[in-house]
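#help-structures

NK: newbie question. if I give both the sequence and a SMILES, will the prediction place the ligand too? trying with zinc ion
OV: yes, paste both and it writes out the complex. here, I ran yours:
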Amino acid sequence: MIICDTHCDTLNMRVFHKDETPCVTMEHMVQGGVSLQTCALFAGSKGMSDHPYERAIAQYNELCRLSREEGWEKANSPLDAEEGKVKILLSVEGGEIFEGKVERVDEFYGYGVRMSGVTWNNENEMGHPAKHGSKEGIKPRGWELLRRMAEHKIAVDTSHLNEAGFWDIVDHHSQPPLASHSCAKALRNHFRNLTDDQIRAMVQRGGWIGVNFYPWFLGDTGKAVAEDIVTHIDYMCQLGADRHVGFGSDFDGIEVWPDDCSSPAGVPLVIDGLRRRGYSEEAIARIAGDNFLDYYRRLGW
Ligand SMILES: [Zn+2]
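OV: that's the protein plus ligand as structure tokens.
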């Protein structure tokens, strides 16, 4: 079984929070049987004043160091994923990393970025975050960057984006949207989660959703277990997303995690939970990784 995880912030933690202990390690990824771990270049929490481009380059250099010294292997294509091997897919979290420059999209494509979020929790040149409730859609410069991303078959990540921007992409963008680390709003009313209409639109457009493992997105108490991740996946499947859903842990970007699933080594517990809910091995393999790879096949990889 190929297991994919579509979001973690371990590069940011390793560069900018050296006092913290990353849980996304080679040992944990091997233990969890993860084949493709997406690692984000995070723009930083302060928007443009945080020098997002320089931050991203520092995180990219950290991945290069991990490749040299600890055997981390970067995937050139998502479809390079293979069972029994761990590969790293590079993404961007927060379009301010491009600083509004189309040629920066080319540059990061060259580094191996295959997925890019429009915003984090701050407004940028591309659009507006879900956090501040703006009713404004994708900005003209955002469309320019999105079109260049589509030329490179870089997936557009709508996690953190506001609803107006999300619907703009659903209605007007050439690519199906992806949400790399979001849960179901019907189960936990949080601005970072997706409404039923958004989930159905993802299904209709051939998109993909990675369910976040963050307890505060899974429920109201800040406490969770792997079973709660299964509940969100199962809910999305009931809305028709059984071929459009998978895992988007957010490890090393969250300060709490499910009690029994505190690192990539815990992913098999989510898979066991799906088995207990009666999912077939085929359905589980799709959720674990095949759905994500199929999404990239639809992008033309
Ligand atoms: Zn995030």
